[in-house]
Specification:
Blueprint lengths: L18 H12 L1 H35 L9 E6 L5 E5 L6 E8 L3 E5 L15 E7 L3 E6 L6 H10 L1 H4 L1 E6 L4 E9 L4 E6 L5 H6 L7 E3 L3 E5 L5 E3 L3 E4 L2 E5 L3 E10 L1 H26 L11 H5 L3 H11 L8 H15 L18 E3 L9 E3 L1 H10 L1 H9 L9 H10 L2 H20 L11 H51 L3
Antiparallel strand pairs: 1-15, 2-14, 3-11, 3-15, 4-8, 5-6, 5-9, 7-8, 9-10, 11-12, 13-14, 16-17
């Protein structure tokens, strides 16, 4: 227990006692309550980690459920271009139709291009002065110093002010040409160079045509299905709900069609994530604690290899959530939500997941996991698509304010919204148990408060043990002094007797 900041202890005066070893052995017994507390604290930390792992899995399942809550996720539009040299498809949009597009002109940026210069880009320039560079974003003054500035440093100064001006510069040393371009396209983009005095230093240094020091960009121009000319400041445009990039002049046809194949994958993912939750929660809640293995103390770890510690702790932390009501309650709530028939306007509509091929496995050892009859699911999607969509996405206006309304709302909600609400409710319970972050001082969760209490007890015991150890050292020091005194007296008596 002694440390660098503790009291200075002088022992071993008599040579008859190994004081440090004796006190260390005595303190082992005194430390037993602290070791027990530290094991309890470690076990609580493991428990919180395991809860957080369950929480993460539940969040993943909720994300899969969320993909089935909205009608827009059930059918997407796939679009294609007949001529990618004219336009490319960025995203399919939501309108399944065909559009004929004629691109007359692309949107362009404003640019000024210099004539060839032969000077090295790293050599100092011989002309100085100030110029103002103006773009769509604003203006900035650039200073060129004769004998100090270089072509590279001037380009760097222009680019350092690019955010303020909206103008970027680049110099091609192999061609000896400067390029000044606006960072945006369209007729509102511009590049303008104005001398701060009689001499335009930038034009002199980079051999710019002084009659071409102000340029503007151009808008894209195109028609859709013979419409009037449409103008755009950018080449990324939306045509009948389809996002496209204009690539060049000419004609192209956008073909768009409804695609329902993606919903099959979303439903499979939902079932897969549910089965993962069942596996994880069931296994965790039925794994018993091994009483022969407890968390290791620091001293116990010191006598083991890293591999031995890893194997021991794997067994010691098993069963942290055995028969846990939060896990079993979550599984029970999810099963209940899946088994409740949907309340539909018509008796002939789909009401249960089993009607589209999603059923509970018959083997009790599977703990209620789901399986899919893919042929039946595909048949339902192909022939009763709107009902499948409603089975998952149906909404309810009933407020969850009374037990009766909660039950009514639950039955009215489609399976996706119903499960989403149930998962969210269970996640809130996890939050109360483990908190939301890692800042211990503001963690007011159940386990957070428990760990704070254990930490306080640990501090109290540490102080108590330090006091006990100090008393031991004082007692042994007094004992050693007494033995030393007795030895001295014995030696004197022996000499007096003629020894």
């Amino acid at each position: 227990m002694a440390n660098i900041n503790g009291p200075i202890r002088l022992t071993g005066f008599s040579g008859a006692l190994d004081t440090d070893s004796l006190i260390k052995d005595l303190m082992k017994a005194e430390r037993m309550p602290l070791d027990k507390l530290l094991k309890q604290k470690q076990y609580t930390l493991w428990k919180r980690e395991d809860y957080r792992s369950m929480n993460t899995s539940l969040l993943s399942f909720r994300s899969a459920v969320n993909d089935l809550r909205f009608e827009s996720n059930f059918e997407t539009v796939k679009a294609s271009s007949s001529n990618t040299g004219v336009l490319d498809i960025l995203s399919g949009g939501s309108n399944p139709s065909t559009s004929t597009v004629s691109v007359n002109k692309l949107a362009s940026s404003a640019s000024i291009i210099g004539n060839k210069v032969t000077q090295s880009s790293s050599a100092p320039v011989t002309t100085g002065g100030t110029v103002e560079i103006t773009g769509a974003s604003g203006s900035a003054e650039i200073t060129i110093t004769a004998g100090t500035s270089t072509l590279d440093s001037i380009v760097k100064d222009i680019n350092n002010n690019s955010k303020a001006t909206g103008v970027k510069a680049s110099f091609d040393p192999s061609a000896g040409v400067l390029y000044l371009s606006s960072t945006t396209t369209g007729s509102s983009s511009k590049v303008e160079i104005t001398p701060g005095g009689a001499l335009n230093a930038l034009a002199q240094v980079f051999n710019l045509d002084t009659t071409q020091l102000s340029k503007t960009g151009e808008d894209a121009e195109y028609t859709v299905n013979g419409s009037n000319v449409i103008k755009s400041s950018t080449n990324n445009v939306s045509i009948n709900g389809v996002q496209v990039t204009l690539r060049g002049s000419g004609d192209a046809t956008i073909s768009a069609a409804t695609d329902r194949s993606g919903i099959t994958d979303k439903i499979k993912n939902f079932v897969g994530k549910y089965n993962e939750i069942v596996d994880l929660f069931s296994t965790t809640a039925t794994t018993r604690k091994n009483r022969d293995y407890e968390p290791l103390t620091s001293e116990e770890k010191g006598s083991l290899s890293e591999k031995e510690i890893e194997l021991w702790e794997k067994k010691a932390r098993a069963g942290t959530l055995y028969n846990d009501t939060l896990l079993t309650g979550t599984l029970s709530a999810l099963r209940s939500a899946l088994n409740l028939p949907l309340d539909t306007p018509s008796e002939d509509q789909l009401k249960l997941l089993s009607q589209i091929g999603i059923t509970v496995k018959s083997d009790y050892r599977e703990n209620g996991k789901l399986e899919i009859d893919e042929a039946k699911l595909q048949d339902a999607i192909n022939n009763r698509f709107d009902e499948v969509k409603q089975l998952f996405t149906q909404t309810s206006d009933t407020p969850a304010d009374t037990p009766e309304n909660i039950k009514k709302r639950r039955q009215e909600l489609g399976f996706a919204d119903r499960l989403y609400e149930e998962i969210t409710a269970q996640l809130n319970k996890f939050t109360k148990k483990i908190g939301t972050g890692s800042i211990e001082s503001i963690d007011d969760s159940v386990l957070g408060r428990e760990l704070k209490q254990l930490g306080q007890k640990e501090s109290d015991l540490e102080r108590k043990l330090a006091d006990i150890e100090t008393r031991y050292y004082k007692k042994f020091a007094a004992m050693e002094q007494a033995i030393q005194k007795l030895n001295t007296q014995s030696s004197w008596l022996f000499s007096q007797l003629g020894g």
